[in-house]
Amino acid sequence: MSENPNRPLAALQTLVRSQFFWGIVAILVLLLLNVIRDPGYLGVRVNPNTGNLSGNVIDILRAAAPILMIAVGMVLVIATSGIDLSVGSVMAVSGAVSMELLRALNGPNSVGVTIVTVLAALAVSTLLGLLNGVLVAYVGLQPFITTLVMMLAGRGLAKVITNGQNTTGKSESFSWIANGTVVGLPVIFLLAVIVVVLVALIVRRTALGLMIESIGINPQASRLAGIRPNGLLLTVYGASGLLAGIAGIFVTANTMTVDVTRTGNQMELDAILAVVIGGTSLAGGKFAIGGAAVGALLIATLDKTVVFLGVPASATPAFKATVIVVLCLLQSQRVRALFRRRRAQIQAQPDSVTAVSTEAEGVVR
Amino acid sequence: MSIDTQERSLVAQSGSRIGNWFRANATTLPTYAALVLFIGMVVYGEVAYGRILQYNTVSNLLINNAHLVILAVALTFVIVTGGIDLSVGAVIAFSSVSGVMLANAGWNPYLVMLVMVVVGSLFGLASGVLIQYFNVQPFIATLAMMFLARGLASMLSTQPERLAEDSPIRSLATEWKIIDGEKVNDLMLTPNVLIAVAVVVAAFFVLHRTRLGRTVYAIGGSESSALLMGLPVVKTKLWIYVISGTLAGLAAVVYTSRLGIAQNITGIGWELDAIAATVIGGTLLTGGAGFVLGSVVGALVLGLMNVLITRDGRIPAAMTTIITGGILLIFVLLQRAVTARRR
Predict the structure, then answer these.
(1) Does ipTM top 0.95?
(2) For the structural domain made of A54-329, what CATH number should be given?
(3) Which residues contact B291 (CB under 8 A, 6 or more apart)?
(4) Given A135, A175, A191, B38, which residue has the most CB atoms within 10 angstroms?
């Protein structure tokens, strides 16, 4: 193998086949579009007074942070062949709890108040996630029904918490989470990277990731293999709630306001899109955290590009939904069989027997 | 586990006559529960707030929930096959926004109504094709359609689109006095209510009296068995999603004609209302059992709940979805208990 003369080519092939390659290509294409529009787009300036970096790329990283959080939560849930539609609403609840607490405790300069607020918001979000988990794991309700209820009820809960008002809080240190910088880079992005790496290490350096995937492949078989799905499902939905809570803090800390109808609205679309772009099948059983992270960066780039190019922002949800439909089609058995057949035809002799059998398989399915 | 269920069934066998009745009517039990709940709510409302059992309250209950009844019927078809349609609310948003914009652009109003229904059918067809030919899970396919329809609606307009006051589309909401009571206490009907009743009757006929209906139940019971029996599973499932989409389009016509305003955020959460109505009415979420008339009762339970919450005035409106979710959960648990006993 090591004497293979085509090694660079083979390496390129594996790169092209890797889950996040096309995501990165798409990001580069979008950035290129922006550069064509404005050659100085990628420029990163250093503020001489504070030493902070600023520029469009930094803005994209900032915007990517909340999407990274919910995408990582969603990828774990989808790996168990579930789905979490409630992430956007949990973000709103987390934001509502933070802003109400900051206003009630009224300590604009106190770091203690911020710590208490963050912990409370994360606790409530985790609780909502765990509630999803209990309903899915122990009650046996379908994930999409459970989280659909939570999506609508969560939005209601956020409204109940703030009495339907958009609440504003004041806190230096809370705002620092979104607007502060460390060694020139935005804190919000550094925090997001730390969380993503932490989650990736936990699930990939232990057997946890494999067990989560095994539930998604076949819950019965994994139970017979000695894996207890209930506890794992509870953990996964709880983690998704916790991560959505972090995303909610990120979003509200940016403007220090929670808009109970807008905060986190349709964020489940972004999370699902990031996961699908990252090469994770919505059918479950497999996941790629790196892919989801690239997907989240791509969505942030797309959002910023749309605004920069002056395309009406109301068109983006429809575009994102179309991309999801197309990627769903690409993941389907029938389309893959079509591609496989075409490839087989190009390569010397077409193997007619397997072509027929895959076709028959497609029809039966 | 199997020993446990055996023991439980033995206990059930030695039960009284009531136990026998319960077991014989296990599938209809949730429907009876919904009826009891409905009557209980009426009685409670009459005692606590008064003016529930009178002509105008009953008329308004029917008039205001005609669209929900239609959606519940749509979801009954889908859920009986063991599928789901999450796109109905968003399809209503797109259908009504595009309909009102076309009507305001001077299109023939009757053509507009037809277009609104056909738009729904097309979304249903798209979901059906994704599910049936590309093997996408129903909730993912209809979720994608939900995002797509909502996105397209936002693309058309993010402002409330108002239907002209003299538009013939509004005539569907004309209130006919059937019985002229004292003051405003009249028994009223609108063409919309008649449309909803016609949908219920037609759906009842199709689901309980035709081959298509039997196939729907067979698919819900066991899809592979239905396939092995030679039933047209593929065609039927495609039809189910087209029916669901079409009824969503019809619900858009009914709702728009009553309100006269269409907006891209119309119908958020209606898929949950429709699912809840269907489940409360005794349709199993796992498929295979359910009744059209049960879903109508379910829709009326939710409608009456809204009336009671408004009359009470102490519960914030934002709590409505939380309560709906809670009721849905209770009924799912009830179904689980009933089906577990049957097994």
Answers:
(1) no
(2) 1.10.3470
(3) B28, B31, B76, B281, B282, B283
(4) A135
